[in-house]
Design a protein that fits this description.
By secondary structure, the protein is α+β, with helices and mostly antiparallel strands. The chain is built from three helices and four strands. The mean pLDDT is 80.
């Protein structure tokens, strides 16, 4: 039997538990056709690079599949009929990846990082790159913002 990786994107308005149920449904299609699904992962709700079918976000899921091509075609047909699935990508691979995927490994790192607040970014209110009161052209800044020092100038109406 051939080895495949299948990644799909579900609509943003379905819940995470519904997406996990979809993964189980599609895995059952593979099993019914004589294949196996050694790994199933739900990656979560992520932003899309561009709008797809009026969705800006999507729930991502991954399945590693060991099955004949007829089973994979049936699974893809089932996914295309399902209205909750936006996109599907199935590729044939030489060997299946062991352990958690790269997306799952990065997910843990993102959760460990502290979230930045509104005033923590450069350019925010009080930042040093153009925020209100900043030193690079913000309101009252020293590089030409409102109220900043623009050097010596001739009085208004006087030309030299």
């Amino acid at each position: 039997m051939a080895l495949y990786e299948c990644v799909f994107i579900a609509r943003q308005d379905v819940s995470g538990t519904q997406v996990e149920a979809l993964i189980e449904t599609f895995a059952q299609v593979i099993v019914d056709q004589g294949g196996t699904v050694p790994k199933k992962e739900y990656w979560g709700l992520k932003n899309l690079a561009y709008r797809m079918k009026k969705n800006r976000k999507g729930h991502y899921g991954l399945m590693n599949i060991d099955a004949p091509s007829a089973a994979v075609k049936e699974m893809e047909r089932t996914m295309s009929i399902n209205e909750d699935i936006i996109r599907v990508l199935t590729i044939r691979v030489d060997e299946l990846e062991e352990g958690p995927s790269v997306a799952m490994q990065n997910k843990g790192r993102a959760e460990e990082r502290p979230r930045r607040g509104f005033g923590d970014r450069p350019g925010g209110f009080g930042g040093d790159r153009g925020g209100f009161g900043g030193d690079r052209g913000g309101f009252g800044g020293d590089r030409g913002g409102f109220g900043g020092d623009r050097g010596d100038r001739a009085p208004a109406g006087v030309t030299e």
